[in-house]
Amino acid sequence: MAESSVTFFLEKLSNLVIQEASLFGEVEGQVKLLRNELRWMRLFLKDADSKCLYDERIKLWVEQIREIAHDAEDVIDLFIFKVDRQRQQRLKNLKFLKFLPTCVGFADKLPFIHELDSKVKEINLMIEKIMANRSKYGLEALVTSNSSNADHRVSQQERRNANVEETDVVEIKGGMEAVKGMLIKGDQMRREVVSIVGMGGLGKTTLAKKVYNHSDVKQHFECHAWVYVSQEFNPRELLLNIINSVMSLSTEEKKAMREMGEVELGGKLHQYLKDKKYLVVMDDVWSIDAWSSLRVHLSDSMNGSKVLMTTRNKEIAAQANPHEVVGHTESRFYELQLMDDGESWELFLKKTFGVTNFTLVSLSEPMEELGRKIVGKCKGLPLAIVVLAGLLSTKEKTQASWEKVLASVDWHLNQGGPESCLGILALSYNDLPYYLKSCFLYCGIFPEDSEIRASKLIHLWIAEGFIQRRGKETLEDIGEDYLNELIHRSMVQVAEKKVTGSVKSCRIHDLLRDLAISEARDARLFEVQENIDFTSPRSIRRLSIHQHLLKNIISQHLHNSLLRSLIFFSNPIERKDWRSIQKHVKLLGVLDLGRMEDNYTLPKGIGELIHLKFLCIKGTDRVKLPSSIDRLTNLQSLDLHFNDSYIPHTIWKLQQLRHLNCRFGEILSPSKFSKCLINGHLGVERLTNLQTLALTAGSWLDGDGLGKLNQLRKLDLRGWLAPYFRKGFFDSIAELTALRTLVLIDSKDDKKKTLLNRVGLEWQKSVEERTLIPGLMSFSRHSFLYKVRLCGKLDKLPEQTEFYPPNLLTLSLARCKLKDNPMLILRNLPTLRILDLTRDSYVGNRMVCSSGGFVQLESLVLHGLDELEELIVEEGALPNLRSLQIALCHNMKKLPHGLLQLKRLEKFSLITGHKDLIDEILQTEGEEWDRIRIITSIN
To answer: What does the alpha-carbon distance between residue 25 and residue 47 come to, in Å, rounded to a whole number?
Structure first.
């Protein structure tokens, strides 16, 4: 932990010495001395960090190093802040453009330099004493001896690939059938609550997921919803999550729902569910109040609807289903038990060796004896087994290695109590390489049971300085490796994967989250609201707010001059609190304002936060950024979510930006006066570090600047794109060969021109002729591009496969108004796995999937194709299709011809289908139709 603090500051200091040599003036020598001392410290800390647990002397020494690194960082950053403020003050006082200086003069910096010189000398003296203590108190021999926690890393191949899923590994024998039976069998028609009960770490959520995703359960209920409750539940958010799961809502409808209160939302949900057989899963319930707040809104239409609850408390299960208390003969809860020796050993082998069949593992007699001793320490608790096995999966499979782990398990259990699994979890944390510890602990800032978007987590790690550079790899790729390594060790769980197999979202078990919060507090990494020591708020460097704090409490923390990160998961701070931030919290590097419910203008004072690297504002309303945003020269990530936003054109000054995620963000045109203030052209081409660019189209697209962003991985352009579809635009896209995702949404139809022929393209020309005109013809060079979404009118799809990205996995078309059957062309894309044709992408009445086509396609969505009457699936087509959705195709009166031959189909969804179509699927007799009915959901 201390090592990561020193490494982060050392990298920052080294960059400053190189880039800002003139900034430090006469104190440059002291700053370089500080840098050199920190380099020596860092070498010793790699080993010392892992050993402070076993020796109080090392622990004290490491704590002192961490404190001095923090102090040094504060001194340097405060100096830079003061110099920048002085520069801004001079700019403000000058009245004539010709007197504008390029920098602050030495005389202006003199008082700050004297102060910096004094403080850096004091820090260097402290470092000298701390390093001397290493020899004085005999720490040198302890620190430099062989460490059990060397800088070991799983091979890149292992890190980049997902291992065996937890839901595949943890088999709760008998549990699946028992819980499934309670949900779908029997003649009880009243709404019931079925509960899975057991202590933390037994696998309640894992069992609930298996049951919830089982095909029998999916087909038994018309609609399904899963909500994570936890200790900090919010009834309104639970209602919103259920509504979003069971109802198909447009963006506008979702926005309207978010503006409703709890009672109105409850009424909407009750009305929607009153005639439907539903299943709602409430995961991790700690209080009967959570069920009480939802019960009145979940209609009981006596049709067999069910609620599945997971809880540690058997009393909650009994109270939620009171019929059982008054003499109901059949128990409506399933109580998980600890695993027996055989089940524990099986789970241990699967996770340690990454196999699904444990019988394939062969161990020598001494190794098996050691392994069984290690497993015995877990007392049959699945969480402890998979975490400990995750640790062993990174070790050599030797007797000496496992003996060392067994000894460590014994030591940790003695610290946490022999009956507690916390000791085993602590061992797995302490065994992490130094570069992963901060990353794991940081997962604890998120609310309990929350689903964490992987990209956001990695962007936060980068902003916090936890990702260490490694050759020419991008920080994002290294961060993805870090996350996969934590998953490999079972310290973090996969929640959802992308079609590429990479992690889309993750979560952390609540017991591991408790460990992370406890360890983070000891290391002064962060505090979460529920554990804040209000008597000493000034000691906090990172703060996570999960619920709305009392005004006087939040005010205390906004007077904390050391605060580096402020993250809201509740309502954001009020406007008047910005004065406290501007006055006191000068060194913020991370600011996540949470979800905005109303229009919001970011105060001008945001420009004071010159060290800011990460800024996020969620919501679907309107956000306006001030012109002072151009002072945030260290900003790496700006995320305005789905907000309609107004962004000053000076955003192009922020050359450190890596992620500009403002889907509905409009770049404001510069005024004539501001143009005079800018030296040279100011455009998107300046942001050469950009990897994500999501914006509304505007004049900034003119020229070839877009094509110079050669690191761009995601391009998402929306709005009125038509005026910018010139040859230069497509030429620019042709240069973006690092793209992974491309989204082009033209929201205004131009009747005279179409999306792909605005540049005079005629598809009858040869490939050689076509590649010279629009950049789109160069998609064959986009070998990383796996996801394409196009929304806008097309004359026809290109027939040649050379047009398409060679590794395309997901294609979504909308409002294209194609007249010819698109399946005849798209069938030949060899890697396509997901195809969405929506909102009049095809205006013909007959669609044919011909034999031998779509060999890899797994999911097909036909949505809003108003003219479509008939879908024909020829024999041999769509051999791997698993999911088929037909929605809002009002003229489609017959089921797809050839539906029965889709032998791998697991899910067939009909949404607002024609009555004849629904009658056909419900009334047609035959064994194969019984199979189709089982996998069909009608909404």
So the answer is: 36
